[in-house]
Amino acid sequence: MSEIRITVNGRRFRVRVPPMKRLLDVLREDCGLTGAKEGCGEGECGACTVLLDGEAVNSCLVPALQANGRKITTIEGLARGKRLSRLQAAFLSAGATQCGICTPGMLLMAEALARGRTGGRAIDWREGLAGNLCRCTGYTKILEAVKEV
Q: Least CB-packed of 57, 59, 102, 105 within 10 Å?
């Protein structure tokens, strides 16, 4: 077991983890933040997307030890208190959510794109959100919400 120290949504956590425990599991089990969802467990669906030092990552693929000393933003940290972020409000007004499984990951990926955190290359919204799968909305309303912001 190793101890890691992470800052999640501005709150500091010290957690003892086995060597290959995933960041997704630490967030859900040890931090009590269940917004990041496990869809595929293989980094293909984007339901587990979080921001790691501002960069969008699939938390199901990140060993928790790699997050040691870093800052993480989950969907629970996107709003400011009870005030939704601009993206969250746009998703709500555009009807861009249905079952909600993809929504946290979609919002965090959109947040990373809006901040220009795309690994140094220009990416359009459609391409940027392509790694986040949605089985309900058909993406039209999601793209409308993102364009609104």
A: 57
Longest dimension (CA), the chain: 46
Average pLDDT for runs of 10 along the chain of length 149: 97 96 98 96 95 96 98 96 92 88 92 71 72 83 85
b/e sequence 90-99, b meaning 16+ C-beta within 10 Å = bbeebebbee
One domain for residues 90 and 65: no
Give bridge partners of residue 8 from the DSSP assignment.
11, 72
Among 42, 77, 112, residue at a domain's last position: 77
Task: List 11's β-bridge partners, or say none.
Answer: 8
Q: Which domain holds residue 26?
A: 2-77
